[in-house]
Amino acid sequence: MRIDAHHHFWRYTPAEYDWIDDAMASIRRDFLPADLAPEIAAANIDAVISVQARQTLAETEALLEHAAAHPWILGAVGWIPLIDPAVGDLLDRLAVNPALKGVRHVLQAEPDPYMDRRDFNAGLAQLPARNLAYDILIVHHQLPAAIRLVDRHPNQVFVLDHIAKPPIRSGELRPWARDLADLAHRPNVFCKLSGVVTEADYATWNYEQILPYLEAALAAFTPARLMFGSDWPVCRVATTYLGWVRTVERFAATLSVAERQALFHDAAARAYRLT
């Protein structure tokens, strides 16, 4: 089985998806399971993990409904208001659904001190008892703050999204690669090989340009803690679903069979406790 550990569904509205700017106008429409099913079939992907794209409980519940209706959706990483004093009750209500595999907040839109907030950390501390992972969505310059966050929660499984969005357009590797390797020293952190081409120029990126970033992520996390993700439909502004799968397959061609199995299945299965 091959797993896509990161994609989104949405019913598009300009107000709720205002982050989709004019350069991304091609994805200003609905994307639902019926749209994704033929994409994964063509790419020989067997199953997916759905990830929140807007910060509402209604979307979390909608993702869980999609998972109940489609066996190839193995679970969801939803949004839950971790700073809410009643977050424990919300978690109890939602985590009874085995399709809820993790939680995510859009930290890339927050100032770095948000990760130091007492209420945010108190909410996050309630996830391990419910076997929920936490997806870290940040931009490269937020890696030091993310390291501090991870160090407060040694028993929490973390999954870093989009290799922390490195500055590919400028061609810089440091300090991103150094900070990424530092974060990877924490054995409870996994990383998604996703969202890479959308950090490059949508129209002019090429394999050679992104290769150093793929190599740095692999060196930091090894295939055991690095997982494939498409970031569909966002990836469509720079490539096709199949195009990104083929790019990662090209990168993984020199890995062993066991390492490719880890990249396309085992890491995600471990991080999200898939059965």
What does this structure look like?
The protein has one domain: Metal-dependent hydrolases (TIM Barrel). Helix content is 36%, strand content 13%. The chain is built from nine helices and eight strands. The protein has helices at residues 33-42, 57-69, 87-95, 118-124, 143-151, 176-184, 207-221, 241-252, 257-271; strands at residues 3-7, 47-51, 73-78, 100-105, 133-136, 158-160, 189-193, 226-228. It has an eight-stranded parallel sheet with strand order 1-2-3-4-5-6-7-8. Helix 6 packs parallel to helix 7.
Topology:
Layout: E1 3-7, H1 33-42, E2 47-51, H2 57-69, E3 73-78, H3 87-95, E4 100-105, H4 118-124, E5 133-136, H5 143-151, E6 158-160, H6 176-184, E7 189-193, H7 207-221, E8 226-228, H8 241-252, H9 257-271
Number of domains: 1
Reading the helices and strands in chain order gives EHEHEHEHEHEHEHEHH
| Helix amount | 25-40%
Number of strands: 8
Silhouette: globular
Please report the number of helical segments.
9
CATH superfamily: Metal-dependent hydrolases
State mean pLDDT (0 to 100 scale): 97
At CATH's second level, what is the architecture? Alpha-Beta Barrel
Rg result: 17 Å
Please give a quick description of this structure.
With about 280 residues, this protein is an alpha/beta fold. The chain has helices at about 35-40, 55-70, 85-95, 120-125, 145-150, 175-185, 205-220, 240-250, 255-270, and strands at about 5, 45-50, 75-80, 100-105, 135, 160, 190-195, 225-230.
